[in-house]
Design goal:
about 130 residues, 5 strands, 5 helices, about 45% helix, 5-stranded antiparallel beta sheet, alpha+beta, TATA-Binding Protein
Length: about 130
């Protein structure tokens, strides 16, 4: 699953528990959850099967605005998103975009470096709390 700016973390618990832990980790850090998309429920609503697949859209305007002030196009990748899913072997995963990849994609300058570094540290912290 590596490449294309995607960071994937194997989880030690089920997809459902991984999602619950993610939401708790975000709440503990007072990060706003803007939306949760349950792709499996969407698939079921049209008679199709899909293993657990949830996207959580979250963020903090303080961090994201600095990046958009550098290049507004980064707004297509913000707020941040995390994907919790179960693979074909029944293993749960947490995945998110690498902030460094987002910065490179949008040609962010050195003025955004501190914000990108902080965002990376935050995502690492959230992921570690979620998949442990």
């Amino acid at each position: 699953m590596p490449g294309n700016g995607l960071v994937a973390w194997p989880s030690r618990v089920s997809a459902r528990e991984t999602l619950d832990r993610l939401l708790k980790a975000l709440a503990a850090r007072q990060i706003t959850v803007f939306a949760r998309i349950d792709h499996a429920a969407g698939a079921a609503s049209v008679g199709l099967a899909l293993r657990p697949t949830d996207v959580v859209i979250f963020g903090n305007p303080k961090g994201g605005t600095a990046l958009m002030q550098d290049h507004q196009s980064v707004g297509i990748d913000l707020p941040l998103k995390a994907l919790v899913f179960e693979d074909a072997d029944g293993k749960a995963w947490l995945a998110h975009n690498d902030p460094a990849w987002i910065a490179q994609r949008h040609g962010l300058g050195s003025a955004s470096a501190a914000a990108v570094k902080a965002m990376t540290a935050l995502l690492d912290s959230i992921a570690k709390a979620t998949v442990a």
